Amino acid sequence: MAACRRVQRLLLLLIFISGSICSARGAKSVHGDSDNPADNSERGKNPAGEAKVMALEGASSVRRSGGWKLAEEAACREDVSRICPKHSWNNNLAVLECLQDRKDDTEIGADCNHLLWNYKLNLTTDPKFESVAIEVCKTTINGIKECAAEERGKGYLVSCLVDHRTNISEYQCNQYITKMTSIVFSDYRLICGFMDKCKEDINKLHCGSVNTGEKDIHSQGEVISCLEKGLVSEAEEQPGHYTIREDCKKAIMRVAELSSDDFHLDRHLYFSCREDRERFCENTPAGEGKVYKCLFNHKYEESMSDKCKDALSTRQKLIAQDYKVSYSLAKACKPDLRKYRCNMDTAMPRAREAKLSYLLLCLEAAVHRGQTVSGECQGEMLDYRRMLMEDYSLSPEIVLHCRGEIDTHCSGLHHKGRTLHCLMRVFRDKAIMEGHCQKAIQTLIQETDPGADYRIDRALNEACESVIQTACKHIRNGDPMILSCLMEHLYTDKMVEDCEHRLLELQYFISRDWKLDPILYKKCQNDAARICHTHGWNETSEFMPPGAVFSCLYRHAYRTEMQGRRLSRDCKTEVQRILHQRALDVKLDPELQQRCMTDLGKWCSEKTEPGQELDCLQDHLEDLVPNCRDVVGNLTELESEDIQIEALLIRACEPVIQSYCHDVADNQIDTGDLMECLVANKHQKEMNEKCTVGVTHFQLIQMKDFRFSYKFKMACKEDVLKLCPNIKKKVDVVICLSTTVRNDTLQEVKDQRVSMKCRKQLRVEELEMSEDIRLEPDLYESCRQDIKQHCQNVVFGNAQVIECLKESKKHLTPQCHQKVFRLQETEMMDPELDFQLMRVCKQMIRRFCSDTDAKNLLQCLKQNKNSELMDPKCKQMITKRQITQNTDYRLNPVLRKACKADIPKFCQNILNKARDDNELEGQVISCLKLKYADQRLSPDCEGQISVILQESALDYRLDPQLQLQCSEEIPRLCAEEVAAQEQTGQVEECLKYNLLKISHEGCKKEVLNILKESKADIFVDPVLHTACALDIKHQCAAIPPGRGRQMSCLMEALQDKRVRLQPECKKRLQDRIDMWSYAAKVAPAEGFSDLAGQVFTSPAKTYILSMLAMCVALLFLMGLLCGRITKRVTQELKDRSLDQPWVAPISKNRKGYIPIH
């Protein structure tokens, strides 16, 4: 039996060599034309060698006659003359080749078939067979030690020559072995032992008959082909498959292995692909499996015949089961397999070890570990990895486990790897995390390793060719970075739809095994072993959940030195690259998808655009199941430190980054600086809608947990633990810390409880929150209905919604109104938190208030409001804030402080009626104005009220009580002045002139109050002040303003005939006197204090006081005179009473007299 095996190997391999002869003859010689000049010339040169071959033929012939020829036998004469060229008739081997390689449509007689069979059988069993080999291959045998040492007479010598056929250089020896191999492999029954081992299986599978002569010569190759298909069917566990016996399996695989050198030796494939070989591989020489590879490469050409495709597929499936069936692969990788002990794993079954997949995994692991694998072997591996990716049917596990998916979703897509990508898409879309089919696909991706070279995936290569040529042309062809480049251009203008789909389908599976990214594996394998306790590439039996290793790596990627073990710099760079890519699609993060599968279906089923699923999960963070919430929270925390993980956001914000944040973006370590820069420049003209939405969304997510704001977390972590424990939401943490800072400041605590670095970052957070109402969840929730009702068309951002609510404050619900009032109170105390004011007046603040403390910015702007350099928009915004401040003294911190004692002293009755969080509509300020007119306020309070009076005199809108009471009268009487919007006091002047026409008592009272207030200071009457400015300069320059002094000066000048006032001033003064007179009539003093106040505030105060003094003096004189008279009368009565005893001074009555009883 050992001898049979050796002869079998010899004969099979000899067949390979016969193919090279046939191919050298050209297309016609393959079918029997022996017109080969090289062959003829060689024969002519060495007649001795030809004689030996002919001697062998004669000795082995049926008739044993020296001159016997096949062409002359009656059984074959007619067939030979009809089929074979005449010049080949004298060469029995040429005739034999011609008849057995004839075309399908050419028949030969049964007798000729039988004759040929006996000729070949006798030829292969003749003892002279080995003796001829000794003669022909003498030099070769001496050069090969193994063959020289073989025992003679048992067929071992020829078997050895077959094994070393690649080392045979002698032409005659090579020709001899080739001829004999071709003869044997034309009929499986001539292969030693094959018929005995597979006879039962042939009958069971109905592969043909073993009876001599029952089948023609062509059917013999079909028998082996049938057995090979049965072997494939068994591997794929197809329905109704038959289990071939182990001995026959080995025999079939051995035949396939020995026929791997020359496609002529695979008779079924040879006859099936003869025409296709001429069409596609005409110039490809036979031998070393080159024709096989050429045909494999053209397998999916449209002009390739179906019969040849089937034969090629069968051959490929055998290669997948045993890599040695590929001659070129086995030869090229033999040293590397031995070097890395890929075929010496004693723990692995021999059948598993021989599989192509095992070879690929073993050698790929060596490459990924940085070990050297020969270029020739890597080239062969590349070809077969591509072959596996192109045709899913070469992987029995996929055929077995994915039948249902293929029939349902992917039927008819077998072409160029499309079925495999269809299966990838099915699992990616369905998000199925388990199943035999998905595991089979994952295994195939591991075997083929397309991450190392995108060209392995033909479907991807063809779909992305244009993108690679434009976007990735700077990267060497076949470099692993090509896939990264494609991912970087995902969802950009350069990406095409078909490439996008193929890329995501492949990346879905690559992302589930960190080793499939060769760059990541190379840079991080040591870190993974050190930190995540992983093992080598080859230890595929170890089970790890998808993405577990990478999850471990990215958790350590952003650690500081104080937090423990960190990744190396190179590994961290690669981890960041992968994170940036995975952020494009939530399905590329296996851990996230696995833990959040339920929540994705529940909350985010309609979110199909790129990046929307993760945003959706972040939006519903509080509603997620704990496992999902944890992984989303961790990822969001990482994004806060390195926002570049959000690749889509960074791409959308590229213009802003280039203009304002390029210095920060270039930093290798982000630490939240880039997002802070984007927020600060959120409203620049370069900011597009996508970037704005993305930045705002991230800000909103940060409000859910203070850990999501990296800089805030790092600056305030210790303060939060100490001062605000058990508080998680960022907005609550900010409020807690801000309250602590404010209380410490008000109490003038020497050592503030909140650290300096936290206070600085806290300030940044407060400023960011002021930009969008959604960043203050409590306010937003309280005003959600009001926003829908009053601000429906107002977009979020730029604090526009907040501004809308402020303008609609009178119509807000109580709950919302209270929140807005509190917000305004905070903003007035700290104007830097007033986003709209700071935005609109940004340039004016730089111009006028660059050195002003932040708390006094609004006060500074108010003081410069009427400057010629003031921007109109800023001026308008300042006026809005003044209007707001005048509605309630609590919104004016400067006034509140200055009038701290005056307000409860004079306006307590108003405070008693007030409600918290509701404006007093200027009642307190109106109260203080009246006391100002009475000159009863403290100096500090008087100064502030004076400013308010001056401002409100110019713009009636700054007087909330006037606006409230005269809301109907102003449009009716002063429409033109309102429309002019000059803010020069014309509306107030109009109301004064139309005082008699005002019907509303409340409005009339307010106008009268204005007249009363104007007596106290001429600055309160802007129209009069403007008209008399020159006269004040000339007549009253030495008189200080305030307390009605300048007004009195003008009144005296008016009465003095020696003084000539300006006509306009004189007219205005006379008008004011008339108005005051009317005011006195319609609004007399309500009490002595009111009367005294009117007197002291009257411009004719001196005259009135003089008259009063004269009256008092007159009364005094009259009293003196009357007293003299009454005194004399009283004395007479006293004298008389002494004479009357009934008068006795016992007690005094209330008049001082004492009755006597």
UniProtKB/TrEMBL annotation:
Q: What is a single Pfam family found in this protein's UniProt entry? A: Cys_rich_FGFR
GO cellular component term of the entry, any: Golgi membrane
Q: Name one GO molecular function term.
A: fibroblast growth factor binding
- UniProt-annotated location(s): Golgi outpost; Membrane
Subcellular location, principal: Golgi
Q: Where is the composition biased (Basic and acidic residues)?
A: 30-45
Superkingdom per UniProt: Eukaryota
Q: What are the entry keywords?
A: Glycoprotein, Membrane, Repeat, Sialic acid, Signal, Transmembrane, Transmembrane helix
**Signal peptide extent:** 1-26
- Which residue ranges does UniProt annotate as crossing the membrane? 1103-1126
Ranges for region Disordered: 26-49
Protein's membrane topology: Single-pass type I membrane protein
Mapped Cys-rich GLG repeat ranges = 243-303, 372-431, 432-494, 566-625, 686-745, 753-813, 869-936, 998-1058
- Name the PROSITE patterns on file: GLG1_C_RICH (PS51289)
Could you identify this protein by its name?
Golgi apparatus protein 1
Its lineage opens with:
Eukaryota, Metazoa, Chordata, Craniata, Vertebrata
